[in-house]
Amino acid sequence: MIDTVAFFQAFIALFVILDPIANIPVFLTLTEKMDKKDRRSTVNQAIIVAFALLFAFALLGDYIIKFLGIKLESFMIAGGLLLLVISFDMLKGELPKTRHVIKEEVSIVPMATPLLAGPGAITTTIYFINTMGTLITVLAVVSAIIASAILLHLGEGLHNLLGPNASRGLTRIMGLILAAFAVDLMRKGIFGLWSGGI
């Protein structure tokens, strides 16, 4: 039986990091010269590639850090610091420094990565694999990607409905949630190293 509390924790964290609401104006800008059919196709491709990246790291990320000899606790502290930097940018209403865009082959770079499946999402996925297991993590990744896809496909209408001020406000709220998650991740990593004798 699936731990629903753990699933929703993982889903919310991943959804906040994917941050489709903040990405809507960026996606609209990157696809402004496309017609509706091409824009939809581009978003679909970006979603598929982002899911494939996160799914791959969900399955292989643990083996990678073990192969490199990195302790999970060290990875948690580093990942928490990275997420904290991203959250500060979100709180200021800025595009995170890990997500600056270049208008070339937009569906894969920068839309799929780093805008969706960026360093923060990859770090969080690996963390959840180690703490919540493969099933919950994969379900959370799938759910967060589907929710992001729906919002991005409704992007133009949502952007017009919410307006720039509301979009920035929601981004700041998500940034605050992400900051709290990042601090908790670092706390667990530091405590794990301390109790394990480093």
What does the secondary structure layout of this molecule look like, with pairings?
Layout: H1 4-18, H2 20-30, H3 36-67, H4 72-91, H5 107-116, H6 119-132, H7 134-153, H8 155-195
Helix pairs in contact: 1-6, 1-7, 2-7, 2-8, 3-5, 3-6, 3-7, 4-6, 4-8, 6-7
Question: What features would you describe in this structure?
Answer:
The chain has 198 residues and is mostly helical. The chain has one domain. It has helices spanning 4-18, 20-30, 36-67, 72-91, 107-116, 119-132, 134-153, 155-195. Helix 2 (20-30) packs across helix 8 (155-195), helix 4 (72-91) runs antiparallel to helix 8 and helix 6 (119-132) packs antiparallel against helix 7 (134-153).
* Overall average pLDDT: 83
Q: Give the count of structural domains.
A: 1
Radius of gyration: 17 Å
Count of strand segments: 0
Distance between the termini: 35 Å
Tally the helices.
8
Concise account of the structure shown:
The chain has 198 residues and is mainly α. It has one domain.
Task: Give the tags.
mainly alpha, 8 helices, 82% helix, 198 residues, globular
